[in-house]
Amino acid sequence: MDAFEKEHGVKVNYLGLATQESFIEAIRNRKCDVYVMGNELIQSLIADALLTQIDYRNVPNFKNIAANFRDPSYDPKNRYSIPFRWGTTGLLVRADTIAAPIKRWADFGMAGKSALWEMSRHVISIALKAVGYSVNSESPMELEAALNFLLKLKPNLIIWPPSESSIVSPLIDGRATMAYGWSFDALLARAADPNIVYILPDEGAILWAESLVIGVGSERKATAEAYINFMLRPEVSAQVSNILHFATANEAARPWIESALANDPIIFPPNECLKNAELILQLSPKGAKLYSDIWSRFLGAGK
After folding, report:
1. Stated pTM of the model
2. By CB distance 3.0 to 4.6 Å, which of 12, 83, 207, 270 could disulfide with 1?
3. In angstroms, what CA-CA distances link 301 with 31, 98, 141?
């Protein structure tokens, strides 16, 4: 941000937002120009006319984005969004306390207490994967199978609040033997205790991704596009990865990424570990209602 200000003479003000709902509220109230947005929200934001189409004449560095990140189903031809960073969801396991090898989502909760983020979309997606279905399934039958999987685990679950910054602490202090988490949780866990290992299950990892978007009504659209173009410079994208330890969608940035990070399988998993990986996508209104009902039944069970 300082480098952009020095080069363009434009001050960049950073606003941290904690929840998806706060992002939507900020866009509606036109609080910012550029947002780093979770991909599962983008389709509905486009449908609600809350994002501005990007003028690619002002973003020539889009050419640096890897081909497999382009033209996503939720935003054909990337009219409104530019892929920025991504990572994986996997299992965090205390290998020193679990004798049997953990290889699959179906192994979640097989020994001791397991920690689970209180995030319905992710939890139900993991359960779907564990019982052999897509993370984006809207089939009532398949969702019922996912619920049954979760209900069997519930007596041995620690429900972890999303207000916490990481799910690592119950693993470190021994309250849990297993948890699901993201690549940044895995990095924290590895630094704290080498006995905590990160596993991308055989059924396929679950991917998360974030894109750069411009909110509707931005009065500085050309400047916002200049900022996005600046962020897509290979050396700038690499700097973001080097500082935040996230994978970048910017293929041209790889030579500028520190070798320890570029070769870290937690941050940049090898292709064979991403076989059958799925990205969580937006649900239809009917699907969202089904997921909400499943989650309510899960939380209410046993009370």
Report:
1. 0.87
2. 12
3. 40, 27, 19
